[in-house]
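Appendix B. Chain record.
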Amino acid sequence: MIDPDPRLVHLDVREDIRRGAEPFARIMAAVKALGPDEILVLRVPFEPVPLYGVLGRRGLAHRAEHLGPDDWSIRFYRERGEGAQVASPTRPAAPTPVVLDVRGLEPPEPMVRVLVELDRLQPGQRLEIVHDRRPTLLYPMLDDRGFVHATDETEPGAVRIRVERKGGGA
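Structure tokens predicted for this chain:
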């Protein structure tokens, strides 16, 4: 059943992927056509982790839902509300957060990838890490390097760590 919410733009690429067709161009066309308050609901047969970074750099956050074997629904949307940064003539928009998913990687690979991404952060930019567990060895390193961090564990095996420089600057 199609959601009656007129802000939702549905795109199902599961069959494209099963046929071996590359759906990236269709996805990007749908993203480009999104209105400011529209939400892309993407149906795919697997979690499209690399797409999170690509669309995150375009200002889109995401919410993934695993519906069953070979069935994922991902909502891509522009963040609004209390935590959202809105551009104004006196305050430019904050750089898009970098999302780094290190789930399933063997140590020390998650730590290495996080440290590399921290070195690449632009002033004011935030790193959002998706991990299988709380990276207890990482926290003191973040503190020593002048970063602040917050961790949320919304479900087992899905830990989100938000990292930014103290004071939000360079």
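Further analysis of this model is presented in Appendix C.
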